[in-house]
Amino acid sequence: MSNKPYSFFGAVERSFDKAAAFTTWDKGILNQIKECNAVYQMRFPVKRDDGSIEVIEAYRVQHSHHKTPCKGGIRFAAEVNQDEVMALAALMTYKCAIVNVPFGGGKGGIKINPKKYSTYELEKITRRYTAELIKKNFIGPGTDVPAPDYGTGEREMAWILDTYAAMHPGEIDAAGCVTGKPITQGGVRGRREATGLGVFYGVREVCNMADIMQKLGLTTGLEGKRVIVQGLGNVGYHSAKFFQQAGAKIVALAEYEGAIQSDAGLDVDAVFQHRKSTGSILNFPGPKNFEKSSDALEKECDILIPAALENVIDGENAPRINAKLIGEAANGPLTPEADEILAKKGTIVIPDMYLNAGGVTVSYFEWLKNLSHVRYGRLEKRFTENQNAHILGQMEALSGKKVGQTERESILHGPDEVDLVYSGLEETMITATHEIMNTWKANPSIPDMRTAAYVVAINKVGTSYAELGIFP
Ligand code: NAD
Fold first, then answer.
1. Nearest residue CA, atom 4 of ligand 1?
2. Could you tell me the CATH number of the domain that includes residue 268?
3. Domain enclosing residue 456, as ranges
4. Which residue, 191, 254, 405, 436, has fewest beta-carbon neighbours within 10 Å?
C-alpha cells in the first residue's frame, strides 16, 4: 500500500488512462483532454454575525475549453479542496460530451459547512464568491455557467444571478450566467428533480436490456427490484421517488446520521417527512435502524444508488457489497480499487459521469431558455391542442364512436414546459446508454461500463480538439 493520500483527480486520471488505451488518439491530444485548463484558487474575508472576520477558501476550475461556456456545479462542503474540484470539473467535461451537451467542464467549491452559517452569512459568502468570479471573467452566459451541487440549491443560484446582473447592467442574457435558478428567476420546470430523474431513466434503460439482466440473473424491467439509496438530498430523494413510482421496492435508505431497512419497502415521502420533522432518518416507525449509516450499503439488493458523496465504496468495503447493479448517482462514489473488485464479482457499475448527467442536461435546456427568452411550450401548446382536437373530431365523426374522458384529455394535451424537459431528458439518457453499451459490445476487451463511457467521451472531446486544431 502506498502512503500517498487518496487523490480524486488522480482516480479520474487513472480511469481516463485505462480508457485511452482503447482509443487511437495522439498522446498530445490525450494530455490536452486530461489536464485542467484553468484553476482559480481564491481567499476572501467574510464578517460573521458575531462581528469576527473569517477568511474563506474557494475554487473555480475550468477543465476544458473545447466547447464554451464551461459548465459545472458549485459545492459548499467542509471537505472541499483543489484536488476534488479539479476531479469534479474533469468529470463534467466527459459528462457533457457523453450526453451531447455542448459545454466544457467546470466546477466550483467553497470550503464551508453551510450548516454552521446563518442565511445572511451564506448570502454574503455566495455574493462575494460571485464577485470574485466576475473579477477574473470566470462567470458569464458565454464563458462559465455554474449550477447547484452538494450543499447548494435554487436559493444560492438566485443570489449568484442577482450579483452578476447587478454588476452587468443591461446585459440581456444575464439570466444565462447560472442554472438551477428558481422558476421565477428564469429557471426551467423539471430542473429540481432532473438529476434524480436522469438516474432513474439511465438505470431503467440498463434494466430493460435483456442480455445484461440475464448476466446478472435478474428479470428485465424495474418492477419489484430491491433498491437501496444512500443520501436523501436532491439527487437521492428524487431518484428514490422515481424508482418507487415505477414499482421498485426501496428496501433501505441511508443518511449521514444512520440508515433504515425494510424488506417490505419504504415510502420515500413518508421517510423524508419523518426526517424533516424529527431531524433524523432513524426511528421511522416499522423498519430496522442502523446507527452506522455505511452498513446499509452492504445489505443485499438488486440496485444500489450511492447519492451522497465521493469515495464511499473503496477497496475495504467493496468485497462486502451485495448489489448486482450500482448506479453512481453521486460523483465518484467508487474508488478505482472498488471498481476492480466489483468488476471481478460481475457487478455492473453504471458510471457517474453519464448516469448523473440529468442535471447538466436540463441545465442546458434552462440556459437555452434564458438565451431565447421564452418559456418552452409557449408557442406550440395551444396550436398542438387545437390540431389534436381537430384530428380526434374527424376520427370520431368517421368511426361514429366517442373516446372516454381520460383518453380524450391525454390525446388533446399539448406539451407544457415540464413535458418537453422530461422528454428531452429521457431521449438524452436513452441515447447515451445505447452509445456507451454499443461501444462496450463493439470491443469486448473493455473491462467495464465506466471505461466504455470514458472511451465515448475521449472520442468526442478528441474529435473536437482535432477539428479545432491546437492554437499555436
Ligand atoms: P444534497 O446536499 O442535496 O444531498 C446530499 C445528501 O447526502 C444530504 O442529505 C446529506 O445529509 C447526505 N449525506 C452526506 N453524507 C452522507 C453519508 N456519509 N451517508 C449518507 N448520506 C450522507 O446534494 P446533491 O445535490 O443531492 O448531490 C449529491 C451528489 O450528487 C454529489 O456527489 C453531487 O456532486 C452529485 N450531483 C448532483 C447534481 C445535482 O443536480 N444536484 C448533479 C450531478 C451530480
1. 233
2. 3.40.50.720
3. 188-380+415-472
4. 405
* pLDDT tens-place string over residues 66-118: 999 999 999 999 999 999 999 999 999 999 999 999 999 999 999 999 999 99
The helix/strand/coil state of 269 is helix
- Going by alpha carbons, the residue nearest to atom 23 of ligand 1 is 150
Helices (H), 168-315: 194-207, 210-216, 234-245, 268-278
- Residue 107 known to be catalytic: yes
CATH number for position 86: 3.40.50.10860
**Ligand 1: nearest atom to the Cα of 294:** 19
Whether residues 71 and 203 share a domain: the answer is no
Percent of the chain with pLDDT over 90: 94
- State whether 269 and 218 are in the same domain: yes
The finding on whether 157 has its CB within 6 A of some atom of ligand 1 is no
Mean pLDDT across the chain: 96
Interval between CA 330 and ligand 1 midpoint (Å):
6
Query: How far is residue 185's CA from residue 201's CA, in Å, rounded to a whole number?
Result: 28
Maximum distance among all Cα pairs of the chain, rounded to whole angstroms: 80
Residue nearest to atom 40 of ligand 1 (CA): 359
DSSP helix/strand/coil, 103: coil
In the chain, % helix, strand, coil (3-state, to 5) comes to 50, 15, 35
Ligand 1 pocket, 234 CB below 6 A?
Answer: yes
This prediction's pTM: 0.94
Ligand 1 proximity of 268 Cβ (cutoff 6 Å): no
Q: Name the active-site residue from 71, 107, 225, 381.
A: 107
Residues 245 and 339 in one domain: yes
pLDDT of residue 472: 67
Q: Is residue 276 part of a domain?
A: yes
